[in-house]
């Protein structure tokens, strides 16, 4: 099997003059970009990094960030990207956990890097320096190596992503070259990409979706279009200017695109393939995205940082809510809630915890220095995702939420996703999030937080829930109309924020 460095080199040899990357007005062919990547790899080695060391990168999606990712794949250094919104405390904790010897950042993270004070690592800056000892990216890349740097093999570590750490410190997820390449190949097949595709590079390169977009383009001589951070008008400009052919985004970004006044079907006419992941897409949004883009292919990808793909549905709008079936490199089961046995299987339409086979070509092998997390998530060769869901009679998987999100009200289990899907179909509802809030009588009260398009009463929404067929115990007992639904930087609903802000006990009937 190829490592990722050889995979990129093959693209250079096949189509040296094809456009590989663009960032605004800057465009580089595979041949020209390979030269930059080799100089960056040489610069990292001159700083003392060797195979198996961690490079922490805290940058937006600019061409320098993508260059460093590939430089690490040639040199055998472990690319360790962090959220550029990280605080100084978060940055210091992760760099210490990864035992990083070099940190590279751009202006978006300059304040956090400076806030770390004296450190044991060398700082490299794109823009304003993070400390007095920083060198510039140009200085890093000043020398050309005397021979091609190609040091990694398929068993070497390629990448370490950090999970979001919503309830504890983030966990490192180390992944080998072979797993990263297998995930990229599967991404190509499952999204039916063809040679010389052009993709939007706006999903962060500290997130598995952004990394997959970057790697997959090089495997078929495609064009990766950098958009440093999501902005609707900049994104639409990039799609129109570069004739982007596919989008791979979280549902929130699709929502922001199609709801913006600058959006028009004509501006995105080059896009023929859509994919989404990272969160469920409500039935209402699914219909609106389908109508706005009229794609030839609309893929729902369900996976994680630990194992890139769980399931795939290549006809996302045909069965709203379905995440499809096991992907190219995976087996999926649903087991009883609370069970640690992969053989404690649920029946069709019975909700349980979703688990995935760790024998997958795309799988990680355990968390970085976290045996406690391994003990919680890995049992008998299966990864317990902490996601809840069920298989329907056809064998399609429906993901209903997280184990921790499940609402137990009056002794009944209620899935927020089912209620959100029903409410999303009302024309007055732009976005919705459902949580369980503490309640003296019911234990948890089902509460719907709604961003409206136009005014509507609670009674009208309740009537809509009745007409949609929601069981009485599942219907919201309280509605909160809010200006924005809180979300993470990659578009996941932050239910814990709603619980914290609105979670005072009630005695509603």
Automatic annotation (TrEMBL):
Keywords, sorted A to Z: Ligase
GO terms for biological process, alphabetical: fatty acid metabolic process
Keyword Ligase: yes
Organism superkingdom: Bacteria
Protein name: 4-chlorobenzoate--CoA ligase
EC number: 6.2.1.33
GO molecular function, one term: 4-chlorobenzoate-CoA ligase activity
Gene3D superfamilies noted in UniProt: 3.30.300.30, N-terminal domain of ligase-like
Family: Belongs to the ATP-dependent AMP-binding enzyme family.
SUPFAM superfamilies per UniProt: Acetyl-CoA synthetase-like (SSF56801)
Naturally occurring in which organism (per UniProt): Vreelandella titanicae
């Amino acid at each position: 099997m190829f490592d990722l460095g050889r995979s990129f080199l093959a693209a250079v040899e096949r189509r040296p003059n094809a456009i590989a990357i663009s960032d605004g007005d800057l465009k580089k062919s595979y041949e020209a970009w390979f030269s930059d990547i080799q100089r960056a790899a040489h610069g990292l080695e001159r700083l003392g990094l060797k195979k198996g060391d961690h490079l922490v990168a805290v940058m937006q999606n600019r061409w320098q960030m993508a260059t460093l990712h590939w430089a690490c794949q040639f040199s055998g250094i472990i690319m360790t990207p962090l959220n550029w919104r990280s605080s100084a405390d978060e940055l210091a904790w992760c760099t210490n956990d990864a035992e990083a010897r070099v940190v590279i950042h751009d202006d978006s993270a300059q304040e956090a890097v400076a806030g770390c004070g004296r450190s044991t690592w060398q700082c490299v800056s794109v823009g304003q320096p993070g400390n007095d000892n920083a060198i510039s990216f140009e200085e890093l890349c000043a020398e050309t190596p005397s021979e091609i740097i190609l040091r990694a093999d398929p068993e070497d570590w390629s990448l370490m992503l950090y999970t979001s750490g919503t309830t504890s410190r983030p966990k490192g997820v180390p992944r080998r070259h072979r797993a990263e390449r297998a995930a990229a190949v599967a991404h190509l097949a499952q999204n039916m990409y063809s040679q010389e595709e052009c993709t939007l590079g706006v999903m962060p390169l500290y997130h598995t979706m952004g990394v997959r977009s970057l790697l997959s383009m090089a495997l078929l001589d495609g064009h990766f279009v950098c958009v440093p951070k999501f902005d609707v008008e900049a994104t639409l400009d990039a799609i129109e200017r570069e004739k982007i052919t596919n989008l791979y985004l979280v549902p929130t970004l699709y929502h922001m695109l199609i709801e913006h006044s600058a959006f028009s079907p004509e501006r995105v006419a080059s896009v023929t393939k859509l994919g989404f992941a990272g969160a469920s897409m409500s039935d209402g949004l699914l219909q609106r995205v389908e109508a706005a883009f009229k794609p030839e292919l609309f893929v729902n990808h369900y996976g994680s940082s630990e194992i890139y793909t769980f399931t795939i549905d290549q006809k996302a709008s045909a069965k709203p809510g379905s995440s499809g079936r096991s992907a190219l490199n995976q087996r999926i089961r649903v087991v009883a809630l609370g069970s640690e046995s992969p053989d404690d299987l649920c029946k069709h339409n019975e909700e349980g915890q979703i688990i995935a086979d760790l024998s997958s070509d795309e799988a990680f092998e355990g968390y970085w220095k976290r045996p406690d997390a391994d003990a919680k998530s890995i049992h008998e060769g299966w990864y317990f995702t902490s996601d809840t869901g069920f298989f329907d009679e056809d064998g399609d998987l429906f993901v209903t939420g997280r184990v921790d999100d499940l609402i137990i009200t009056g002794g009944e289990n209620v899935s927020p996703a089912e209620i959100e899907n029903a409410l999303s179909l009302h024309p007055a509802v732009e976005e919705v999030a459902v949580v369980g809030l503490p309640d003296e009588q019911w234990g948890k009260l089902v509460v719907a937080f709604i961003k409206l398009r136009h005014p509507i009463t609670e009674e009208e929404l309740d009537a809509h829930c009745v007409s949609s067929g929601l069981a009485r115990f599942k219907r919201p007992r309280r509605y909160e109309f809010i200006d924005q639904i809180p979300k993470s930087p990659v578009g996941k609903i932050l239910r814990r924020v709603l619980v914290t802000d609105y979670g005072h006990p009630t005695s509603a009937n």
